[in-house]
Amino acid sequence: PTPSKRLEQVLGAGVVRVHCSACSHYMPSKQKQAARTTPAVAKTATKGGKVTKKEKIVHKNRPIFNKTPKNYGIGGDIQPPRDLTRFVRWPKYVRLQRQRQVLMKRLKVPPAVNQFSHTLNKSDAKTLFTLLDKYRPETKAAKNARLLAQAAAGAEAKPEAKKAVVHSGLNTVTSLVEKRKAKLVVIPHDVDPLELVLWLPTLCRKKDIPYVIVKSKSRLGKVVHRKTASVLAITEVDSKDQANLALLVQKARDNFNGRYAVAMKTHGGKVMGFKHNMAQAALNKKK
Fold this sequence. Notes:
Blueprint: E1 5-10, E2 16-20, E3 25-28, H1 30-37, E4 45-47, E5 50-52, H2 92-106, E6 108-109, H3 111-114, H4 122-134, H5 140-153, E7 167-168, H6 170-178, E8 184-188, H7 200-206, E9 211-214, H8 217-223, E10 232-234, H9 242-257, H10 260-263, E11 268-269, H11 274-286
Parallel strand pairs: 8-9
Antiparallel strand pairs: 1-2, 2-3, 4-5, 6-11, 7-10, 8-10
Helix pairs in contact: 4-9
């Protein structure tokens, strides 16, 4: 059976567009199909031997495609999504740490403080923390379980060999450095207040103890089962890890102990913002 067709709109030049309700799309009429198949020369007319183009038909109104502009006034349409990050009232600790970061860039930072911005690279830091995780101290629960096992064994308990572990704590590490027992000292770059460890690189250089500065005091804290740690020290390792320790010691001497004299002459900061740089460029241009 032939589907029902509805005459929808009559266009110029006798071209009729019909709507097919069965397949829900517009079908051109036979007249329009014939006009498409005719060559382009048929659309031109000769006038005095000259070929002139046929005038285009301008359609005035097409109610199918009416414009529906949105009104974003009061009581109108829903506002489009916007990025409101700039207008968020951040917590005080977030504002303080951001302001402090900006000040550290703007102000002239002395060399003793600026040396903590130079940290161990990512690949060497991965090797270092892999070594540190092998010598983590035992937890309180593990220590209690070990002591209970020894008490239950009584006189038959065999003395256990002392295991090599990582030492933590500012006083402990300082005494190890002064006695030259530490083989490698690890200092985080974000100790707060920084004055706690500001003098430690100088002491390590004086006692000829290799030291490295790494990122994140919380990462050091995980090694010793704490939230944070201000400093760690390695005193001894097993024979199978001697090669890794020797490699890290050499890296520490090359990148930190060896360049201590240069670091003590290098100031930091003095990085201005975009608006200041643009204003300065405008002043220089006038000169």
